[in-house]
């Protein structure tokens, strides 16, 4: 079997175009445009690129972005105060604090200070709890984007074996819960998992989010499996690559997501979706 690539860039462009229409409708009906506060602390080069891309995506969709750039030396208390002021600002529908934060600032404290109503990243403990018990709420953007990718290829999770490699709070755990919500039989594998290749070979759907360049080769993949690569790594030549050795798995999988151009662009598209959803909620409306 030769796998097809799932084009995350094209799917993200479609979702962003849909959000542009929703924003225009909201503006026509209520004279209001959604606003996203984007907070970046420090000079992390990758974070600067992601934040720039998020702001550009907002602009293209007609979403107002409220940009807050703070120096690396910003104290935790100053950042928490900024978040509190954004919570109180009625023109701000969503608050995004770009991660990672400098080491002297607690991610958890900052995330938990964001109002759950504005938690468009879906990282707040309230959003996590809602996902756990199957109640509506903001879903983290990367797993939500992957769910959209699965829908785009008509992959029905029900009864399928899914293996999620990685147990982070922002990808692995929420991804596992979202697949469970879709009636997959889910295994979370991690650094202590014994015989990882054998566990992965059980999977009809393999989602890899471990941050180890090209870890997953054909030996990890069942014939016909769908392989989703969440990695954003550098290979031995410094070239961007994922956690999956795409060339190696192409012959075995039915679908593979590329890096770049796969899951990454979907993360940004789902951020816009969550922001529009937050703004619609103000007017008693929802996306569907
Ligand atoms: N507050 C948040 N922080 C972080 C998140 C997040 O969802 N919210 N996720 C990641 C980084 N991230 C978004 O912030 C992100 C990473 C990568 C991409 C992307 O489009 N990647 C491109 C390649 C980009 C490149 O050339 O370097 C791709 O895969 O095609 C988008 C968003 C951690 N922090």
Automatic annotation (TrEMBL):
Belongs to the tetrahydrofolate dehydrogenase/cyclohydrolase family. The gene is folD. PANTHER family: C-1-TETRAHYDROFOLATE SYNTHASE, CYTOPLASMIC, C-1-TETRAHYDROFOLATE SYNTHASE, CYTOPLASMIC-RELATED. NADP(+) binds at residues 166-168. Keywords: Amino-acid biosynthesis, Histidine biosynthesis, Hydrolase, Methionine biosynthesis, Multifunctional enzyme, NADP, One-carbon metabolism, Oxidoreductase, Purine biosynthesis. One of its GO terms (biological process) is methionine biosynthetic process. PROSITE patterns: THF_DHG_CYH_1, THF_DHG_CYH_2. Gene3D superfamilies: Leucine Dehydrogenase, chain A, domain 1, NAD(P)-binding Rossmann-like Domain. It comes from Mesosutterella multiformis. This is Bifunctional protein FolD.
């Amino acid at each position: 079997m030769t796998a097809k690539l799932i084009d995350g860039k094209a799917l993200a462009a479609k979702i962003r175009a849909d959000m542009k229409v929703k924003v225009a409708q909201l503006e026509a009906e209520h004279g209001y445009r959604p606003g996203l506060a984007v907070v970046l602390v420090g000079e992390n080069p990758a974070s600067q690129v992601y934040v720039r891309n998020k702001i550009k995506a907002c602009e293209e969709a007609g979403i107002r972005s409220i940009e807050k750039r703070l120096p690396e030396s910003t104290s935790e208390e100053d950042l928490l105060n900024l978040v509190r002021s954004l919570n109180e600002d009625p023109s701000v529908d969503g608050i995004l604090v770009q991660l990672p934060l400098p080491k002297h600032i607690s991610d958890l404290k900052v995330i938990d200070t964001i109002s759950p109503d504005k938690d468009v990243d879906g990282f707040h403990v309230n959003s996590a709890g809602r996902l756990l018990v199957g109640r509506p709420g903001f879903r983290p953007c990367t797993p939500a984007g992957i769910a959209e990718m699965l829908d785009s290829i008509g992959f029905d999770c029900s009864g399928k074996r899914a293996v999620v490699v990685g147990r982070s709070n922002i990808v692995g755990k929420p991804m596992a819960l979202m697949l469970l919500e879709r009636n997959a039989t889910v295994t979370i594998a991690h650094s202590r998992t014994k015989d990882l290749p054998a566990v992965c070979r059980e999977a009809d759907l393999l989602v890899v989010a471990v941050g180890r360049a090209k870890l997953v080769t054909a030996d990890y993949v069942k014939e016909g499996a769908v392989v989703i690569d969440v990695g954003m790594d550098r290979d031995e030549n410094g070239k961007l690559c994922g956690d999956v050795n795409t060339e190696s798995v192409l012959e075995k999988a039915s679908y593979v997501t590329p890096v770049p151009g796969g899951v990454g662009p979907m993360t940004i598209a789902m951020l816009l979706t969550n922001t529009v959803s937050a703004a619609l909620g103000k007017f008693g409306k929802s996306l569907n």
